[in-house]
Amino acid sequence: MARSAWALALAAASLGCVAPAIAATAFEPTQIVQGTPLVLQGTGTRYRAVFKVYDMALYLPKKARTAEEALAATNGPVRLQFVARRDIPGTDLGLSFIKGLSSNATPDQVRRHTPSSNRLVEIFSGRTKLASGDTFAMEFVPGKGTTFYIQGQAQGAPVGDAEYFGMVLRIWLGAAPVDSQLKDALLSSAAN
Q: How far apart, in whole angstroms, are the C-alpha atoms of residue 169 and residue 14?
């Protein structure tokens, strides 16, 4: 029985019939970052083939109607919150973030922000894996940069600037998002 379910899931994926990117995690409706209240913009699940990788929530100072509005929100604090839905090797996660950065930035931007990107890879590669249920986050504060968190603990000092965090956001909201269904899910609450 399990074998036929696996074959059915694989066939559905090959036909593009992947489940919608609705997050199973119940994220908080608001977050406070550096004294600024943020609202939950949207949530979704990152899939790789038919497998759930992580649930994700995007918090902004105010709801955005489009990806462009969400990307412009870096004039205030922004938070990305994640919950691993399966064991994820740390190196794989860090490198997939770098691939997403490169897919949505110019070569000059990638070059300018190499130290910040290297720090991102170091943080996740420094862990053998993130286990299913582990949390991680990225928090941007204007004038300070981006702080990475694992299990609620800051992983060193903030890095980068608003341009760098815009590159980070484009991993999910850019022209070449890592998962277009997840992009839609993160922006879907704008219609509500």
A: 28
